[in-house]
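Project standup — Tuesday

K.O.: blocked on the structure for the chain from last sprint. Re-posting the sequence here as requested.
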Amino acid sequence: MDESLKEYRTFLINADQKAQEDFDKTILTLSGGALGISIAFVKDVIGGNPIEYAWALAWAWISWSVSLTCILTSFYLSQQALRKSIRQVDSGEIYQETPGGRFSKFTSYANGLGIIFFILGVLLIVLFAYRNLVL
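H.V.: unblocked you, prediction finished:
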């Protein structure tokens, strides 16, 4: 293996780890924080008042839970993609195949779904808050 390919391999490992860590930490923090804050919100702000649009709150919680699950799944898939990429570099197949193979594709899907479900949860909690605080 020539030196430039070794450097590229090292770059792949470092870049992938850093980008994935940053993304996953951000979504995990946001989704987990949103769950915690919304639970406190219901308890402290709504209190004993009648709750409207409880379904929106429930679906917000479900959405954030799915978002967390997607990101946790992407942790595993990205590890597998990274290991596959390393094997591809080592065997010389990196030029004939997509780096990381199907694991890279599924990691992207899991990350995309994580974002979508996080945003859906935000929209639902805004609807719930609006119906219970404004109206």
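K.O.: great, moving the ticket to review. Residues 3-133 form one domain. The two ends are 67 Å apart (CA to CA).
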